[in-house]
Every structure is written in C-alpha cells, then in structure tokens.
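Subgroup meeting minutes
Present: P.N., E.W., G.H.
Scribe: E.W.

1. P.N. recapped why we're keeping a running log of single-chain structure predictions: easier to compare across weeks, and new members can see raw inputs and outputs side by side.
2. G.H. added today's entry (268 aa).
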Amino acid sequence: MRIVQELRSPLNRLFIYETHDGYRVESVFYKGERLCISTQVGCPVGCAFCASGSKGFFRNLSFDEIVAQYELLKGKLPIKGIAIAGIGEPALNAMNVKRAVDYFREKGLKVTISSTGYPMEGFKELVKLNHNGLTLSVHALKEETRRKIFKKMERLEKLLQVIEEHLSQSSSSRRKKFQLGYLLIKNLNDDEENLRLLAETALKHRFTVMLMMYNEVEGKGLKAVTKEEYEKAFLFLRSFGVRVTLSNRFRIDKLGGCGTLTIARRVQ
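Output recorded in log:
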C-alpha cells in the first residue's frame, strides 16, 4: 500500500492509496486531528446518496491495509483519533475491523465507527468492540423511506434490539457511546413524520442524534437542504428534548462529507 495522491481543501486533506493489486482507496484527515479511514474497495450497500460505492464493490481491505492508512501518515500528521467511516461498510469486514480497532486502541488512539448495520451478524461484532463511539446510520425511520435510501439493509428495530441487548450487559456509561446518524436530504427524509419518529426513537433509547448535511453528488438526483431547513430540522428535534449534534465544518467540506469519498478523485 502506498500513497499516490493528496488533495487539500482549506479544512481537510484527502489521501489516495494504491493497493498491491492496483485498487485505490481513500482516507481524510480532519484538522480536528482525526483520520477517517476506509475498510473496503467500493461498497455493496448501495446508499442512494453515496458516491463511494458508485463503481461497485471489489473486495474487503485486509487488516494490514486498514492500519496502513494510519501508519503511512502518523509521522506527518498529529493524528489523535480514528474514524472508521470512509469507503465501505465496516460490518461487512468485521473481523479485520476488530483487529484494527484493537490495534489503534493499543496505540492510545480514540476510535469511532459508523455503520448502516448491514449485515446483522457483522453489526453484532461491531457493537461489542472496544470503540469510543458507534454511530448507527439510520437516515430515515419509515421503512418505505429506508428502502429508497438503502439497497441492502436490516430492519431498524432489529438493529436497535442488538444494541439494547449489548447495553443490558454493560455499564450504564456505555450507552453514551452510541448515537443515531441522520443525513438530511431534501424531499426524501426531511419530512416531519420521519423526524418525529427519529425523535421518539432517540428518546426511547436515550441516544444522541448526529444530524448531517447532505453533500450533493452529481448523477444521484438528490438535493441538499438549505441552511435554514437544516436549522429548522435541528430545532424540531430539540423541541422533543433530543440531544442533537450538528455537522461541523470539516464534515460539510466536499473532501470529507458523508458519501463524497471518490468524488474528488473522479473529477480531477
């Protein structure tokens, strides 16, 4: 594995790596000292908004390839945390992700994971890992809307049950490490019914909601909400008493926003 290109924006730095067999994957360094890394070459989950799997799925990254994204940069950048949230679904490569999480934690790094929860067996493994936070990417609460967003998915209530079963055997503080990820997309999941169900679910399980802004991807036919609509959704959730975190400026940037990896390389 070697770095073949670096792209910079005022906020983030994107690194493109080439594997021994000629595939390319990416990581993003957020200036908040966190490195967002990939776990697969492509992705088979097929999120409607995402560019990362637009060329299909090729293979899982090995343990060595996952940690190499950090090892090749650790002497050059002040990396203090790892976000396993780049290209690929971690639950589809759970065993190598587990080894990587253990490796990073031994190095004293904080590790967070983002997952759609597919497949269920892999998600069960992620939940149990020694992570500092796991975001379940729900993106909609109505099943008909979820089917429009995810090509492959598990039923949301089953995923939440997995987390609750794990938490029933853990310390009370462990619950704080889980949150719901929600990417707000205009005229798809920004309606009051989905947001109300999101609020009810978050309150029931005592989870924080990470509310993210969509970065428009050419050819996907989806639109981003305006800043005013984004703030309105935030205030709507807060009116129920839900804890909500917002996309920071690093996450909104095109070299690091949800679903945008591979875009920068494709348009060069």
